[in-house]
Amino acid sequence: MIPRAETAPIVGSEVRSAAGVRRGSESTVWSKVRRERWMYAFVLPGFVFFVIFRYLPLLGNIVAFEDYSPYLGFVDSPWVGLDNFRALFSSPTVGSALINTLIINGLQIVVYFPATISLALLLNSLMSPGVKKVVQSIVYLPYFIGWVVLVSVWQSVLGGDGLLNHLLNSHGLGAVNLMTNPTIFKPMMVLEYIWKNVGWGAIIFLAAISKVEVHLYEAAVVDGAGPWRRMWHVTLPGIRGIAVLLLILNLGNILTTGFEQILLQQPGVGAPAGEVLDTFVYFQGILGGNWGLSAAVGLFKGVVGTILIVAANKAAHALGEQGVF
Amino acid sequence: MAGMGMLAACTSAQPNSGASGGTAACVANLQFPPNTPPERPGQIVSKVPNVPLAWTEYPKPYVTMPNPPGKGETVTTFQILFSSPPPPLESNPWWQQLNKRLGVTIQPTLADSPDYAAKLNTLAAGGSFPDITWINFNQNGQNNGAGFMKFVAQGAFNDLTPYLTGDGLKQFPNLQLLPPVTWRGSAFQGKIYGAPYPIQPVNGQLGMYRKDWAEKLKVDNPKNAEEVMRMFVAFAQEDPDGNGIKDTWGIDTLHPSIWNAMFRAPNQWRLNSDGSLTRDLETEEWKAALEFAHTMWTKGAFHPDALTLTLNQNMSLIESGKTGFFTQGGWGYFGSQPGTMTTLTKQNNPDANPAPWIPPGFDGGKPAIPLGTADYGFGAIPSTIKDEKKIIELLHIMEFIAAPFGSDEFNFIYYGIENDMFNWVNGAPVHVTNGNQNWSNGLNYLCGTTEINYFYANQPGEAQLMQQLQEQQIQASIADPTLGLYSPTWVAQSGNLIKLQTDAYNSMVVGNSPLTDLPKLISDWKSQGGDQARKEFQQSLDKCKP
Amino acid sequence: MAINAGAAPFWMERPSLTSRIVKAVALILIVTVMLFPFWYVLSVSLSSERDLLGANVALIPLHPNLGAYTTIFQGAVVTSALEVSIGVTAIGTLVCMLMTTTLAYGLSRTSQVPGTKFVLILVLGTLLFNAGIIPNYLTVRYLGLLNTYASLIVPGLISAFNLVVVRQFFMGIPEDLTDAAMIDGANPLQIFWHIILPLSKAVLAVVALFYGVALWSDYFGPLLYINNTAMWPIPLVLRLYVLQGQALSGAEQVGQPLPPAQTLQMAVVVIATLPILFVYPFLQRYFVQGVLSGAIKG
């Protein structure tokens, strides 16, 4: 109901022309710099932080090319070139680890991601603010409970000696084996992940939804849209930007799964079904002090992630989205 | 020392080249002065060598180190924390007294046990180790040192062999009392790098079972593999608690070492007479143990969550009368003082009679129980410290911590300050109830002797029983021939190789894969580093030949 | 001014009975599943030995006691760790938010400020590449930050993820507003303070929550960078309670039995979690509809 034009001060056209002058292509780089010099003050501290605390340590990835021993240090550890990468790719188990990782993360993107949005939409549609508050606070509780406890609770319900099987047994049905069944291991991991994280993941969408301007809803109601159509035409488009952003970022991390979660439950199903890249690195790299291999995997993940993010970002642009950059 | 027989075959002295792989001096070259403890009332010295002392009564305090070993400076340490951190120095009277008694100011860096390896590695990377650094090759249970062996082999720590063996050890009388099996167990490449924290030579293999169940179901005292299986299956299938519900199981987790012991499989590796090494999973005995466990599983003797149960859950299961078997390291789960497994099990199940259990040989003969390293880490001195006087001083500090059972120093280290933290009850020290028990957490864990002195306050006969059980186990034990040897491939790959083995074992036992997968496991194990490790270990052993 | 939070927006119709029932059922299901683990944790933490028979779930302790909590708070170690955590989290969140919002604002117009696109790419690069334990440790060490509280805050000062999110929200603020302010002679600092920040309360609340939770629950940083256990924050201290009952040997002969290990573990989780639970409701009020249009009117 409030027309957009009123957001501009009374000197309407002057703003535009002034804006036009400012954004003209006749500005040179240097004049842009001078005009925006304040912005550099905003950027500088963060920039320095990233250089010192993120990029400087990244040089430590040199160990991917060394047989690194912490005692000998970066300089004195023997150089092995691409041997660590060779060992990584020729390992007989890395293939299944990679596939398992991609499957689990793929499932997460397909199932968990929409679940967080759906939960946010559901919470948003609650009438009573009291109920809203209570439900929101409850729903993100599992996020704070560590995997060790969550897995033991999960097992106490679904394990061989758990509530479910007790129920089944008391009704004369046989026991089901859910925890040591290699076939359903990956979906189980995803379900657990959703359980733990969906409440937390919804928060950012709740914030985004709250930014959708009210007058858009009002206009939709005037046009006769019911709640579902309002959701489809107003709410979802409103959070599309952040959703695309998160989707792209998640794609970049597609080779990283929960490490502790998998480690706790992997023994039940064995390596072919349960090994992921992060546990592979743990057993082959970290446990044996094989820093070179760990760093090689890290670099590999980074390269793959970069390719995926760049590609996804381009795709986003092609679809008219802002993307990440 | 039956277990150490194989290593004793090497007799020639070898010079050490120190660096990675393939070199080893003989552990058996290490000579130690006699370690017979001075006689004290209540002390029982076993006739079997290396068995810990047992005490029928707590000795009257005696002083072993009247003068503080330190010279007033600050001594930094790196130690491990198994429970909450100690109160800071300003509010910690125990710590303050420790400093006084040692004559130094202890400045510890404490790492919590799950993150100990990460912290130690950062100390290595940072280029400076504390003056006394506790190193444990077996901290993660895999005996591959998580890379620590690498930097010990690279010279990060002083070779303390001259001070801790032969005549050198005589200047540290308290350390001299440690049994040789502990020194040898903590040696690396034939050298001693620090004062070890001694534990029972056979550790973690003594079972606790529900003798009352066995007697009730008339399956007690199994003499061979068949009867063992019958007993545990009966625990699961024949309603030993008599409540009409099928809610009990024989055993919690799979416990492969017990069945391996029964079938006399090698302890990790077997040294053949021609000097070659065979890995346990390549042997017929291991296969037989595997098949046994699988049959037990199919008959329902194991808990269905056997593959994922944690120690806490195991404890809970036996305490609540749901399983008939339990084991863990140390000897504290026996004994009837408050809070032990035995006490709790009896509390919750009034008829319970939890008793010790050692497996028989599968054929009625003796089992082959794995002999451990007899240590749980050692206190090392970084090689940046070159001053001999300083080294000797640090060793005296460690000697203080290693004070013998019942000495004034021992009482302080483990019980604290008299009247504030403990009281004498019937001649034995007892912690003050309702008090803070955290004064010495982490600070007193270095090379103390609390685990090699069996003592149960006011429980006559218990200590002697534990000692006899240890004697039995040591006499039926076999050693790991690769102990103390350095194979870089093993260090790098053992995490993966052991997991490969464990995963395949688990999978075959519970039937997720067929027993016919064993040859594939063997060939995978060999190609993923097992053969290379074997070669390196064999090379080390070869260098030991006369 | 936000719309009156007590009433439903006037443009919303009353939902039908079916949809209300469906929503209610869905909610009850979700809430039960989500509440279950925390209820379990709380219940076990208050249980006594007798309640814990078997490996099964004990949902309502019949003999509740606070033994676990009194054990944990003995000796003032936990209380001082709580103090450390509160201090580090409060100050750390403030500093992190300051650095993040300023950098995000600086990068919010990459097409018009030369060089900032490069910085943005630089920041994004850190999302995917990790330096690892040792290089980070060495950096902190050589800057002399070992064993200081600063080492718990500074290495994680700006999270690339949070930065990207904040930047996204900043870019969503209509340029007309900022342009108008510039015409009126405002410099970027004033625009930042009077326009950008007030309009971003929702995302600032969210990101502050993210930083706060990360700071509060970080145990690995303190483990690596702090040697003095008196300076340890809560998660590291409490991590060790989870280990009690798992020591190698149980040879200690303590005068009074400890509460069962499980109870201690769960009490630990409760203590570590409760503070966060109290924080979120305060932040929720920033998620109310219509903040933007309010600012236009005002």
Q: State the low-pLDDT regions of chain B, or none.
A: 1-24
Q: What name does the CATH topology of the largest domain in chain B carry?
A: D-Maltodextrin-Binding Protein, domain 2
Quickly count the domains of chain A.
2
- The whole-angstrom Rg of chain A is 26 Å
Shape of chain B: globular
CATH architecture of the largest domain in chain B: 3-Layer(aba) Sandwich
Mean pLDDT level of chain B: 88
Question: At the third CATH level, what is the topology name of the largest domain in chain A?
Answer: MetI-like fold
What is the number of helical segments of chain B per DSSP (H or I, 4+ residues)? 18
How far apart are the first and last residues' alpha carbons of chain A, in Å? 34 Å
Helix/strand layout:
The complex is a heterotrimer of chains A (325), B (546) and C (298).
Chain A: H1 12-22, H2 29-35, H3 37-58, H4 73-76, H5 83-90, H6 94-124, H7 129-139, H8 147-158, H9 163-170, H10 185-210, H11 214-222, H12 227-252, H13 259-265, H14 271-274, H15 277-286, H16 291-318
Helix pairs in contact in A: 5-16, 6-10, 6-12, 6-15, 11-12, 12-16, 15-16
Chain B: E1 43-44, E2 53-55, E3 74-81, H1 93-102, E4 105-112, H2 116-125, E5 132-135, H3 148-153, H4 161-164, H5 166-169, H6 173-176, H7 180-185, E6 194-198, E7 207-210, H8 211-216, H9 225-237, H10 256-262, E8 269-271, E9 277-279, H11 284-298, H12 311-319, E10 325-326, H13 341-348, E11 354-357, E12 369-370, E13 375-380, H14 388-401, H15 408-415, E14 422-425, E15 428-431, E16 453-454, H16 462-475, E17 477-478, H17 488-509, H18 518-542
Parallel strand pairs in B: 2-16, 3-4, 3-5, 12-17
Antiparallel strand pairs in B: 1-2, 5-13, 6-13, 7-10, 7-11, 8-9, 14-15
Chain C: H1 17-45, H2 67-73, H3 77-106, H4 116-128, H5 133-142, H6 150-153, H7 160-171, H8 175-183, H9 188-199, H10 201-217, H11 220-225, H12 234-243, H13 261-284, H14 291-297
Task: Walk me through this protein's architecture.
Chain A has 16 helices and no strands. Chain A has helices at residues 12-22, 29-35, 37-58, 73-76, 83-90, 94-124, 129-139, 147-158, 163-170, 185-210, 214-222, 227-252, 259-265, 271-274, 277-286, 291-318. With 325 residues, chain A is mostly helical. In chain A, helix 5 (83-90) packs across helix 16. Chain B is built from 18 helices and 17 strands. Mean pLDDT of chain B is 88; it is low at 1-24. Chain C is mainly alpha-helical and 298 residues long. In chain C, helix 7 runs antiparallel to helix 10 (201-217). Chain C is flat. At the A-C interface, helix 1, helix 2, helix 3, helix 7 and helix 8 of A face helix 1, helix 3, helix 4, helix 5 and helix 7 of C.
